[in-house]
Amino acid sequence: MGKKRNLYLKTIPVEEAKEKYMAALGVLIEPKIETIDVRNSLDRITASAIFARYSSPLFNASAMDGIAVKASDTDNASEAAPVVLTEDKYLVVDTGDPIHPPYDAVIMAEDIVDVEEGVRITASAHPWQHIRPIGEDIVAGEMILPSNHKIRAIDIGVLLSAGILEVDVVKRPEVAIFPTGTEIIEPEDKPEDGSIIESNSRMFENMVTVAGGIGHRFPPIIDDYEQIKAKVSNAVDKFDMVIVNAGSSAGTEDYTVHVLRELGEVIVHGVSIKPGKPVILAVVRGKPVIGLPGYPVSAYIGFENFVTPVIQMMGKRPELLTETLDAHISKRLVSSLKYKEYVRVKVGKVGDKFVAAPLARGAGAAMSLVRADGFCVIEQSSEGVEAGEKVKIELYRSKSEIENTVVIIGSHDLILDVIADIMPNEYKDMHVTSTHVGSMGGLMALRRGEAHMAPIHLLDEATGEYNISYINKLFPKGAASSEPMALIKGVHRIQGILVKKGNPLGVSSIDDLAKKDVCYVNRQRGAGTRVLFDYKLKEAGIDPADINGYDREMATHMAVAAAVASDGADAGMGILSAAKAMGLDFIEVAPEEYDFAIPAKHLELPHVKAFIEILKSEDFRNRVEELGGYECDIAGEVVML
Q1: Are 549 and 520 in contact (CB under 8 A)?
Q2: Is the backbone of residue 86 left (phi > 0), alpha (psi -120 to 50) or beta?
Q3: DSSP 3-state assignment of 409?
Q4: Cα separation of 291 and 263, whole Å?
Q5: CA-CA-CA-CA torsion for 406, 407, 413, 415, nearest 10 degrees?
Q6: Which of 21, 76, 210, 630 could join 281 in a cystine, given CB atoms 3.0 to 4.6 angstroms apart?
Q7: Tens of pLDDT along 188-234?
Q8: How far from 24 is each of 18, 170, 245, 282, 641, CA to CA, in Å?
Q9: What DSSP state is assigned to residue 466?
């Protein structure tokens, strides 16, 4: 097939697309039924109501250890006038033993006294005392479980008690998953220039499982029309549903929509959603076939919106409800009126309000999904939200987990990852979440009440002191708008210039960064590293305009290190641990103090106390020393300001 661009000129709203597709599938899809062993039925959906074969108990049974008696033989027994029963008047029983006539009551072992003639009792028994009658729990013929019920562990026990060994359940939909793209390689293959390691399909496999289906992932198909057509056509005959990943957009080798138009009917191509616009919803020979975009975030959002509901419908499963909460967004979000947008966010509770900090919005930023606590959904008709505005968040994590999380906004350092790893292991149900906006950005977040603490490393050029003067300036003592502040001491670390292994350009100082053949990568404005770099440029009498790449900004030390390790840059400022992690050479520039600014009122929070204890711990010290370039002799000390 000749190359041509597949330009869809119109997209439709998400809900309209979903309704349109479900309507097209509704008349075609009949759930399939299968019979399985009850013992393997956990989480399966019942196809019809299930009725008991046997009663439970199967007979009148003793509910206690003791003796079975005729209640009339115990009449008038009391403390004042005990009754002695001879051995022919009772039967020793254990819990669960059958009770047959003439016995009609059970007396607990604790309420009898052995005597030479038999047993003495000091209270009369009433008929059916401590006896479980036939069918007390289950009566043969009664309904145990209704249809469309998700079978639980307790249900399996009851089914077996009622004599049910097999059960009819809705068959789990079997879903074929095809990654496409000539540039796609398997994770175990060695990447070359232009290679992309395929991972979406493995994500889909597990999302299919969560939704109640069975995923069958196939090897990648190259961008060849006939191959894609043959594979999809064959899969439609064998499976209940087909997912084609990538090839759904407007590229000259995006063949999926053309294939699906030839094989069946395309119901929708292009949805007003961001990220994830190039979704294809098709029906081929009565089966759902969905094309999802290749970028990981777009693929995930497309799956959740369109694949999950179809699998749930086919498997007669209830919709998976997402926990939501209202939170204040930490920065302004601009959105297009044309799309419903899903913005990944970190969420925490600071004081009496929940705060949501947006993460990277790119469709390819897969780690933003890993780091996110949920989505802020901006509806199609909205131009966005202002900083501080209350928004609804669809959560990944539970609300209780978020409430026990230390919210950190500010400068980046690898020690934050160390603390985040230690916290939930040492302190049950407590967590750390960090957003990297630079030292000044962190202090401003504290002023707005959006974080518990801000990691900072800000050099006062006038005094040579780190951090304290900046806190005092932004939170002046006695000011009505300020509150008492404290500084949790962190680590002393080494800042320097990161260069490629072997230092091929011979960079030895800040002065060398002004050479025309050196490509530099900078940190963002407000970052402590940027403040230090600007200070060093001024000290050396270098104009920032003479630095090739001064305006190119990265948000973390590791991002700078990654740029230098690749062909993205020759040099950048960062910490020694980042250089070691990426196998780079390092030219020391200056030691500095990396601490945590915190409103004093937060020091009493249990999760903040746990944070401080971790800083003081031997485990933290050992892990940080392995990273290199740190001293933590006073880590965890609290300085009241």
Answers
A1: yes
A2: beta
A3: strand
A4: 14
A5: 10
A6: 21
A7: 888 888 888 888 999 999 999 999 999 999 999 998 899 999 999 99
A8: 10, 21, 22, 9, 66
A9: B
Within 10 A of 186 (CB to CB), how many other CB atoms are there? Answer: 11
622, with CB counted inside 10 A (0-12, 13-18, 19+), is exposed
By C-alpha distance, which of 585, 524, 616, 10 is closest to 277?
A: 10
Question: Which residue has 């919210």 as its token pair?
Answer: 407
Separation of alpha carbons 407 and 285, rounded Å: 51
Is the sign of the CA dihedral 618, 619, 624, 627 positive or negative?
A: positive
User: In the prediction, which pLDDT does 7 show?
Assistant: 52
pLDDT (0 to 100) of residue 2: 47
The set of residues, in sequence order, having a beta carbon less than 8 Å from that of 218 and lying 6+ positions away, is 176, 177, 178, 179, 201, 231, 235
Q: Which residue has the tokens 């009148």?
A: 60
Q: Can you tell me the distance from the alpha carbon of 121 to that of 78, in angstroms, rounded to the nearest whole number?
A: 8
Q: Which residues contact 220 (CB under 8 A, 6 or more apart)?
A: 178, 179, 180, 181, 184, 185, 186, 198
- Interacting residues of 33 by C-beta distance below 8 A, sequence separation 6+: 47, 168, 169, 170, 171
Rounded Cα gap, residues 327 and 314, in angstroms:
35
pLDDT of residue 379: 84
Q: Is the dihedral of CA 420, 598, 531, 539 positive or negative?
A: negative
What does the alpha-carbon distance between residue 614 and residue 50 come to, in Å, rounded to a whole number? 54
| Bond preceding residue 599 cis, omega within 30 of 0 | no
Q: How many helices (H) and strands (E) does the chain have?
A: 17, 38
Note whether 105 and 111 are within 8 A (CB). no
Residue 253 corresponds to which tokens in the numbers above? 């080798």
**E-strand spans in 369-508?**
374-378, 384-385, 390-395, 405-410, 431-436, 454-456, 485-499
Helix (H, G, I), strand (E, B) or coil at 634: coil
Which pLDDT value is given to residue 248?
A: 59
Query: What pLDDT sits at residue 10?
Result: 66
CA angle 259, 260, 261 (to 5 degrees): 90
Dist. CA 5–CA 473, nearest whole Å: 57
Closest among 311, 313, 316 to 241, alpha carbons compared: 311
Q: What are phi and psi of 185, to 5 degrees?
A: -130, 160
Q: Measured on CA atoms in the order 204, 205, 206, 208, is the torsion positive or negative?
A: positive
State residue 170's pLDDT score: 95
What is the rounded distance in angstroms from the CA atom of residue 555 to the CA atom of residue 572?
12
User: Hey, what amino acid is at 384?
Assistant: G
| pLDDT at residue 1, as a whole number | 46
Q: How far apart are CA 270 and CA 9, in angstroms?
A: 9
Return the pLDDT at 103. Answer: 94
The three-state secondary structure class of 248 is coil
Q: Which is nearest to 444 in space by CA: 362, 325, 525? A: 525
Which among 227, 224, 248, 182 has a CA at the least distance from the CA of 5? 248
Residues of the chain with pLDDT under 50: 1-3, 9
Amino acid in the structure at residue 417: D
